[in-house]
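Researcher: Let's do a round of design. I'm pasting the structure tokens now; please hold your answer until I've finished.
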């Protein structure tokens, strides 16, 4: 019982990474039609990719957004995607805090 309570705060992050992995499957490069990598090294990302996500083709170097559309170099991110990313981040933090507080309350009430 205590082991499962200690793993509860990890559930939102596992959900987020599972969503990211399942969402990224099936995206192909618009230029050379090769599959995009699901995970990308952090040193290969551009500033736009750090802010809103996206992919860079390992074959031709084409940069795309999360939907697989080609993006020109030095393109500014859209405001809606920034708000969506911030919302997902806040959602994960709130859920992990709730899942941390509930087991602690249960442990305190048990004593």
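Researcher: That's everything. Go ahead.
Model: Designed sequence:
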């Amino acid at each position: 019982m205590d082991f499962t309570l200690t793993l509860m705060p990890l559930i939102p992050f596992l959900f987020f990474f599972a969503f990211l992995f399942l969402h990224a499957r099936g995206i192909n490069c618009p230029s050379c039609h090769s599959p995009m990598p699901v995970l990308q090294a952090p040193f290969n990302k551009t500033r736009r990719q750090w802010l809103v996500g996206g992919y860079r083709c390992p074959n031709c170097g084409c940069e795309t957004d999360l939907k697989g559309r080609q993006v020109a170099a030095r393109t500014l991110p859209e405001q809606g995607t920034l708000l969506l990313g911030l919302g997902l981040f806040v959602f994960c933090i709130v859920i992990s805090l709730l899942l941390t507080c509930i087991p602690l309350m249960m442990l305190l009430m048990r004593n």
